[in-house]
Design goal:
The protein has ten helices and nine strands. The chain is of the alpha/beta class. It has two domains: 158 residues, Rossmann fold (3-Layer(aba) Sandwich), CATH 3.40.50.1220; 79 residues, SIR2/SIRT2 'Small Domain', CATH 3.30.1600.10. Strands 3-2-1-7-8-9 form a six-stranded parallel β-sheet, with helices on both faces. Helix 1 crosses helix 10 and helix 6 runs parallel beside helix 10.
């Protein structure tokens, strides 16, 4: 997508924002990739191969079953992910989404567990898959927040009762957190004036459904992704470019129409 086409489409999107609007941003690994975090199949090389060094698919190594049977294996890959997050920081795309709160009512639904949206200043974040910085004891429920895993014994033990600790993230085979599902349901029930899906292939039904709802209700839907995805055929506008480049163009156009 060349600069002229991007600018024209960004201006078309911004025209919807002349008044304060309620906006949903759905984000995936493609957004954090521009912070230096590889996308799902590339985080530290974890997902690039069919098998891990433990002779099992990464989806098995990061499953609830393996965690409770062999926690040292699951923690090995969780720690590798956290190390990648630790060496990165929110990018301009995360910051733009946060800054839009000054003019619009913004809700973020993210699949990412890196915590970058909150770090960038977003106040209403539904991290549907959790946040790797939040740890919880599997026995007594004691919780703590760790900025990083430096010096953390793996697998870690609870400071209160000595039992196994896990990050508050959704592992394979596990259900989504009921409180976050309920929160998402409440927000979707209120509806939005515009729906953005950024850097996600939208393969999970709960990620694709808001875009389907937008199409049914006639609300603006925008996809930002270099490649076509599961929802590309139903969105109003598809920006085939990187997340930061597209969000910069939209942010600049939005400032022009709302100032």
């Amino acid at each position: 997508m060349d600069d002229t086409e991007l600018r024209l489409r960004a201006e078309s999107i911004a025209e919807h924002f002349r008044e304060r609007r309620r906006i949903l941003f759905i984000t995936g690994a493609g957004l954090s990739a521009e912070s230096g975090l590889p996308t799902y199949r590339g985080i530290g090389g974890l997902y690039a191969k069919a098998e891990t060094e433990h002779d099992m698919p990464i989806e098995v190594a990061l499953s609830g079953t393996v965690f409770y049977q062999r926690p040292e294996i699951t923690w090995h890959y969780i720690a590798r992910l956290e190390k990648a997050v630790r060496n990165a920081k929110p990018n301009r795309g995360h910051e733009i989404i946060a800054e839009l709160e000054s003019k619009h009512e913004v809700v973020v639904l993210t699949q990412n567990v890196d915590g970058f949206h909150r770090a960038a200043g977003s106040s209403r974040v539904i991290d549907i898959h959790g946040d790797c910085h939040y740890l919880v004891c599997t026995r007594c429920g004691h919780r703590e927040i760790r900025a990083d895993y430096s010096g953390l014994e793996l697998p870690p033990k609870c400071q209160e009762c000595g039992s196994l600790v896990r990050p508050e993230v959704v592992l394979f085979e596990e259900l989504l957190p009921p409180d976050k599902v309920d929160e998402l349901g409440r927000e979707l029930a209120r509806g939005f004036d515009a729906y953005f899906t950024i850097g996600t292939t939208s393969v999970f039904p709960y990620i694709a459904q808001p875009i389907v709802d937008a199409a049914r209700s006639g609300k603006l839907s925008v996809e930002i992704n270099p490649e076509p995805t599961e929802v590309s055929e139903i969105v109003d506008i598809a920006l085939r470019t990187g997340a930061v480049r597209a969000l910069r163009a939209i942010f600049e156009a939005n400032n022009q129409v709302t100032n």
